[in-house]
Structures are given as C-alpha cells and as structure tokens.
Fold these 3 entries.
Entry 1:
Amino acid sequence: MKFFLDTGSVDEIRKGNELGLVDGITTNPTLVAKEGLSFKDLLKEICAIVPGPVNAEVTAPDAPGMLRQAMELKEVAPNIIIKIPMIPEGLKALKTLSEKKVKTNVTLIFSPVQALIAAKLGATYVSPFIGRLDDISQVGMDVIRQIRQIFDNYGLETQILTASVRHPVHVLEAALAGSDVATMPYKVYEMLIKHPLTDSGNEKFLADWKKLQEAK
C-alpha cells in the first residue's frame, strides 16, 4: 500500500521525504490556505520535492470551470493529479478529463456506489473519507472493504485512496482491506513509526553498549 502525505506544508513534505515514506501528496483548498502562497507556486515547490502523484483540487462550481482549472493545473508539472468533487458537475468534468487521458482523483466519496460511478467514468483514484463517516457513527472502513470487493468483481483499475485517516489503526485497517493508498497527516506518519517497546528497547541497547565501552 502506498503512503500519501495529506498536507500543504512544504516543511512536512521535506521531513516525510527524508524518511522515504512519501509516495505522493494530497492537498485541498483548506490545507493550501494555511500556507500563505499562491496555489500554483506551492504546487511547483511540492512537485520539485516529490516525484510521485501530487493531487491538486479544482474549486469551480461547474464543469466548464473545473475543466479550465484542470488544464491549468495540469501544466504545473507532469505528476499533477486533478481532484474532482463527487457531484454532478464534477462527473461531467471527469468524463471529459478521462477522454483526454488526464489523471484524476474523485474526492468526497462516502458510499461504495459513488466509488463505482467514478470508476466507470475513468477516475484514476477514488477517495472515500473514512474518518468523516466514523464521525457520524458509520464504520468508514466498511466502505473501503465494499469498494475493494466491487472493483475486484469487475476488474476495475481505479485505485482506492483511503482519506480522512485519523490514526494508525485506520492505516492498518486500510492495508488489511486492500486499499491501494492511504493518505494521512504528518502526525499520523510519526505515530506509525513509534512504539513504546521500540523506544525502551533501543534505550536499553544503548545503555548496555555504553557499559561495555566503559568496561574496556
């Protein structure tokens, strides 16, 4: 399973990239707004760091506007993926972008049938938001498992990108469910690496090594 970093922070991207854990990036207007840079300038900087997919979201309310924005964003770098919302106007734009061989990520998906529709229209990725489903007392990970089964049933090549990941258990469950990608904030990256037994074990090894050196 690929790990995408869900952020607009260049500092977080650099830190994640140094660890070798960044297969791609997802951004959205909320994340970008925090950085104080123009969207295109920020994307250029991110794409210079990360060679993998960098997801950039359109913000126009209608299909013609989405298509204009998509064509502009696509020119920023060859690894840009166009994020399209799961709404009727978004689906119209998705159909045209698929015909033009533009890679897309259909976002704000909350049901398996929405994912199926996006896949039928040629989406490269679908992004089910599991954390937001958990917030309303639905089991978000059930949606991932159902999408995986549907896509496998029909040999659909669209990749499942598990989004709205809140903690390491979401990452574990996404991997077990067969998600192609999990995108997560940097704090979850850090949580994945850490374990108290790893820390205590390493401290003991270092303490024993120090004693050995002092005994010589």
Entry 2:
Amino acid sequence: MTTRPPHAPAGRPEPDAPRLRTPSSDVRAALEVAAVRVIERDGRAGLTVRAVAAEAGVAPMGVYNHLQGKSGLLVAVLASGFDGLTEAVTWNSALDPETAFFEVGRGYRRFVLSRPVTYGLMFGGGVPADVHSQIAEHALPAFQALLDTVQHSQHAGLVRPGPAEPLAMCIWSAVHGAVGLELAAESPAETGEGVYESVLRMIVDGLAPRGR
C-alpha cells in the first residue's frame, strides 16, 4: 500500500525531484572539444553550429549561448590550438639543454600532425581580422615559449649570443617549413621524422656559438 507524506495534501501529486543542470563551464568545454573534433574530421567547411552541437550532444542554441555562434566556434578552435602549441613547445628544464631543445622541436611537429587543419588556420589565411584579435592573448605565449627556448639555449651555450627574436624567427621558419612540406607531401616517408630530425640537427649546428 502506498502512503503519502503527512505534509502532502490529498489529491495533489508530489513534486518531481529537481533536475540537475550541467554547469555552464562544462557545456562550453564540451562544445570547444567538439569543435576541434569536427574541424579536424570535416575541415573548415564542416565547422557548423549544427555539426558541433550534435558532436557535443547539446541543442544548437547552446552554441549561440556559450560561443556566440559559428564565429565563436572558430575562436575556440584557434585559441585551443595556440594553447596546445604553447604546451607542446614549452622548455623542459629537467632535461639536458640539447635534449630539451630537440624535444621542443619534436613537440612542435607532434602538435602539427595531431591538428593539421587547426594549424593551417593558425598560420594561414582566411581567418577574419576580428577572430585574430580575439585570439591574440593565446597566440603570444606560443611565440614567447620559442623565445624562452632560445634564451635557455643561449644560457647553456647551445645557441650563440644575440637578440633572441631574430634567432627564434629562424628556428620557426625552419620547423614551419619542414612540417608544412610533410603535410603536403604525397609520400610522407620522404619528409617524415627522419628528415625532421635532420632539420633540428641543422638548426642546432647552425646556431651554435662560433668555435663550438
């Protein structure tokens, strides 16, 4: 036999238990992850509000509420891209300097190969100026990490003295070119890991202090 609580009036149904709402920050994070999955799988043209909403398991209106629509999706993808690149090329002081330098270079390549579509947008064309302005705070730390690599290497005697920025640009030009060729190659084996390791060795030897 079913009894009702003493405080529940006769004939009135008991209230349903309150629904737990997903925290807004969790929904936003899920949408950002979904946007990355979609763009890497389907390309720039596939990055739509409906596709990302379906990937994240939320209503399309959620994309507008949390990321302000399609433009916000692109901002989220690029911001997470630069954050990921920064993490990939951050100097590891626990390693000896030459190993740390090579690991920065390898981290760059690993990031590019894991997110080639995002990488192409990060340093290619076709991104609106207003999107670039919104991701500046994410892009600057990535270049700063490269400057830090140069300065750490200089301090260790691995790289010749001098202003860090021109040296960082030389390093970036070399690794950017190497991974770009690898992404574009019909036969990746011809421009893969072995070639990239040779490029890193060339950089270290070319930037070494005179007489080293």
Entry 3:
Amino acid sequence: MEKTMERKRMLRKSDFEMLISLRDEMLTQDTDAQASPRYWVIRDYGWEETKKGLHGRVCVYVPRYYDTYEIKDYLDNIRFHYDDHSEETLGKLSTIMEVAPDLEEDERNSMYLQWIREYIDDDAELVYEVSIPRIVTSTFFLTKREAQEHIKANHYHYSDKVHTYAMTAWRSPQVDMLYSILETTDWETIASHVDFFEKENDVPF
C-alpha cells in the first residue's frame, strides 16, 4: 500500500509567539515540588467501599433499585420530594430524622436502615465508603495555569475537592529532550530570521 504523505504547514508568527510565551511560563511557574520535566493533571476524589471504622460516609444499598445512596441524603430526598408514601409513613421518617442527630452513629444508621427495610426494600444493606483520590484520565497540561482554567471551565464534571496535581515524567528521555528544547531555545532569534505567511490563505498545506 502506498504511504500517504503527511501534509505539513508552514510556521506562522503566532506559533513563535506561543512558543515564547510557553517557554517563559514554564520557566517561571510554580513547581509544586515536582522535578522537571513536570506536567499537571487533574486530581479528584471518588467513593469506594471500605470496612466499617475506616469509612468517611455511610450509604445504603437498595436492591430494588440496583443502586447505592448516601443514607441521610437518600432519606431526606424521600422526606421532602416524594409523595408516594402515606402521611403516617412519612411522619415516622420525620420523627427519625429529627432525633437522629442526637444519637450515636451506629444507632442512628440502624434506625435509618430499619425504616428503609420496612417501607422501601427489606433486603437493603448498609455500605461503608471512603473518599479516595484519583487522577482524572485524559488530562495533561504543560502549565499549572491551564490546568486551573480547565477546572474552572469544567467544574460541573468534578467534585468540590478537585485540584491540580503536578507530576514528573520520570525516566522519559524523549519528554526530557522536548522540555529542554521548549525551555532553552531562543525562539525570538529564530523568529527574526523567518519569512512568515501572515494570512491564513497564504499558508501552503
């Protein structure tokens, strides 16, 4: 099969302006205690099941719905937003929710679970979960600023604990060489010796 030649575009003046700006930012930005070649990713937190006593929150697994819910939020949602329970049933739930804050955690969750088993699903079970940090897949930024801007623009995809996280491309000679080129090249001098195609239509592809 004949190999298709890749089309290459000529460098524009704006390309050099970007390289100069990127070089200066990479050399002056915070390092976040990471060695070069450093890059930034997005770090967020998710919940995973754990043992009782190591948990950060208590949930309830409801087989009827094949899903797990944070137990207090689940009951508050039923209490205030659902009308498919009788006044008597909701009254019992309201009583539980009012006295629960004064109880020990085990007693409180036992009362929650008892109500759920009686009125929602008698096979419901408590689930203990812990918050675990995770690197968000498909995130990679050369500058911390851009990573921060990504979070700001896409905050609705993340939790309120999301943050930037610096890492090092450890033992990657190609990345190390690329960073060296980006950070040490005198792009201004090179640009001064280039005849640019200033208009988009003038750039040959």
